[in-house]
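Recall from the previous lesson that a structure prediction takes nothing but the amino acid sequence as input. Here we apply that procedure to Phosphoribosylaminoimidazole-succinocarboxamide synthase from Rhodobaculum claviforme. The sequence below is the only information supplied.
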Amino acid sequence: MARRTKVYEGKAKVLYEGPEPGTLVQYFKDDATAFNAEKRAVIDGKGVLNNRLSEFFMSGLNAIGVPTHFIRRINMREQLIRAVEIIPLEVVVRNVAAGSLSKRLGIEEGTALPRPIVEFYYKDDALGDPLVSEEHVIAFGWASQQDLDDMVQLALRVNDFLSGVMLGVGIKLVDFKIEIGRIWENDFQRLIIADEISPDSCRLWDMRTGEKLDKDVFRRDLGNLADAYTEVAKRLGVLPSNGKVMTRPTLIN
Ligand SMILES: Nc1ncnc2c1ncn2[C@@H]1O[C@H](COP(=O)(O)OP(=O)(O)OP(=O)(O)O)[C@@H](O)[C@H]1O
Ligand SMILES: [Mg+2]
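The prediction returns the following tokens.
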């Protein structure tokens, strides 16, 4: 096989040039980082689980008409995606107080919020991804007012979809983060969901026990991260019933 061109290597994923123009191959690594990469580890099998879970959520979103970058899974660690121009914002939706919201506003973790709250964080590792307002987004030209309206709509649709899917398997969707990108079709631009949707980018609590099934297990040293993600994947039926994760890339089709 011809050697592929690496386009970008981040903390959790690598992007390669795709087979056709306008496509990329997204490779999921086993690396886990938290607190702006101050804490790091390699979690065996995490990349495989996130590749499958992100496929599951993104293809579900595509199916209900919420556009995403996901085209198809290639193997255990890679998926084919549409290349987008990433809007430099992390879009966070919160249903229950946790993490930085609890810290910043002194609201106890676990407090239900009166309605879903959408927040924007400027993607800049050197600044620690600071919270910004719509005023900042528009003044600094990161997105237009129309983009912002579209982003809020997309984020809330993702929230409804993910909340419902998780509710069905006894998991509460506390909050999540998405990235959104622009694609051009003829002369028109459109916004679609990009990056990944996985337990790395969501807070997921077991509805019965309150057990955390997301990256907080790693951030707060609460146990084995791969076990938590495996539990999510098993409940959603995206893992073979024996729960075995093949950690080496394996061609599926
Ligand atoms: N469809 C896409 N087209 C182009 N870039 C994408 C797409 N989906 C995700 N990306 C970008 O690919 C990178 C994925 O790598 P990773 O998540 O490991 O990065 P990261 O270390 O979190 O860094 P960053 O701060 O850039 O997000 C991110 O920069 C993300 O914004
Ligand atoms: Mg990332």
